[in-house]
UniProtKB/TrEMBL annotation:
<keyword id="KW-0175">Coiled coil</keyword>
<dbReference type="GO" id="GO:0016020">
    <property type="term" value="C:membrane"/>
</dbReference>
<dbReference type="InterPro" id="IPR026617">
    <property type="entry name" value="SMCO2/5"/>
</dbReference>
<keyword id="KW-0812">Transmembrane</keyword>
<feature type="coiled-coil region">
    <location>
        <begin position="6"/>
        <end position="187"/>
    </location>
</feature>
<keyword id="KW-1133">Transmembrane helix</keyword>
<keyword id="KW-0472">Membrane</keyword>
<protein>
    <recommendedName>
        <fullName>Transmembrane and coiled-coil domain-containing protein 5A</fullName>
    </recommendedName>
</protein>
<dbReference type="Pfam" id="PF14992">
    <property type="entry name" value="TMCO5"/>
</dbReference>
Amino acid sequence: MEILRLAQSKKNINSLNMDLERDMQRIDEANQDLLVKIHKKEDEIQRLENEITQTRDLAEDEELEKENSTTMERERALQEMEEETARLERKNETLVHSIAELERQLTRKSQKATKCEQDNLKGTPEESKVKLQQLEASCADQEKELAKVIEDYAFVAQLCEDQALCIKKYQETLKKIQEELETRFLEREVSKVMCMNSTSKEYNSQNNKDNSLQKKKAGFCKSLPLLGNKCQKVASEQTLVFLTESKLAPSTLESSG
């Protein structure tokens, strides 16, 4: 009776082992499906990250190109202003020379007029009066011309000062823009590095999860044969004990008789 019970236990253990093997097979298949899904998700994530990176790079390139275009336009405008300032400075120098030349001419004409007046004193009063009127008209024309030159000179000088102030402010603005461009470039580079580090950490974390799952599976598979052997060993020991007790029972009865 005990042998039948042990045989049934062994049969149950074998059936349990088979059920466990089937469960392990189903777990393995589910694990394989899960790994396939994980790989698909990883590929999808990688594709999306590549698309995001490409889109971000295109946007950054467009923004950088726009900023470079703006900077080039401002540099070109600054160069034009510098050329205009140089032209005005040359005109200013020409006006200074013209004023100096007019002053020399006025001095010579004044000396000449004084000499003519001295000579005219020797002539008739009518001739002296006519020559004096001519000299006064000539001096008035020279004074008007000199006043116009001085006015042009003052205008050009003021324009040069305004241009110089404008160029100074423009250079300061251009310097700030260049500093902002450098700062944005550094921020973009830091953002790229941080994004790469984050992606690497996520990938390593997923690999660690997969490795942990594989280790658990391997440990469970290793424990199944040990469990089956242990059950078989217990069944064998119980069978041996039963047989021993069966043999000892008749001897005990004979000794009692």
